[in-house]
Specification:
2 domains, mainly alpha
Length: about 120
Amino acid sequence: MPILFALTTLFLMQAAGEVLARLTGLPLPGALIGMLLMLAALMVYGRVPAGLRDTCHHMLKHLMLLFIPPVAGIMLYIGPLEREWIPFLLACIAGVGLTVVVTAVTLRWMLRITGKDES
């Protein structure tokens, strides 16, 4: 039962994010808005329920499966990519760099607010 509740919660938050994105016209994906709604709900609740934690833990183990659709899309559009590989490569490098910087800043912030910063 906790797994069903956790999956239902995840899907409802994503659906709420999609609805909110469409109604407000925000330039953000509905899934991201749903994830932010989930974060807000968990912050208000004060903890992560065990069923949700366990379910998400198992889902994250198989996160690599989410890369199959983008790879298939890249293979489908390999022709245009052959002509415009430099912008594609620069976007990939910039995206990775931005992700690393945001992750590092977030980690430093989390360490500081939890009191585990040793510097």
